[in-house]
Amino acid sequence: MPSILVTPLSQIAAAIRLHKPSHMITLLSPEHMIDTPEGIEAARHLRLGLNDVADEWASDMPPSEQHVAQLIEFGRGWNAEAPMLVHCWAGVSRSTAAAFTILCDRNPDAGEREIAMALRYRAPHAYPNPLMVRLADRALGRGGRMVAAAQSIGRGRIVAEGEIIELPLSAHLL
What is the reported pTM? Predict the structure, then answer.
């Protein structure tokens, strides 16, 4: 079944070993960027250097329209024959926002709230980065519905880091 794996940095090796993803997205601060891990082709690894902030003014490297455009383009280039691994430092904010973005893009007729609720169900700790969600909502022409859906699920359970979660790609499986 096509799926997106969301994981913290500490669980990358385990996720690759267990799920054998074909594509990987890294969302880390530029000073903490990693090399492509063994088991992933470098051409199938998107590395986005951005800080986990909710407002542009809060960092010299906030999520940007360009980051979100790259994320969407990369997601559209994934054939979904094997899972895609998405991670950030803790597997809570940037990575869940990226997964939410890809799921909304790949399921244009699905309700944003339905997708957000599926994310919450599988990841009680998820708190999608609000700035990334806002930028993705605009890029995908969702008229504020992604923002409202992410806000509707709240901050989630407070954790130091998440665990490996698997999100089905198809909306009817969410």
Answer: 0.96
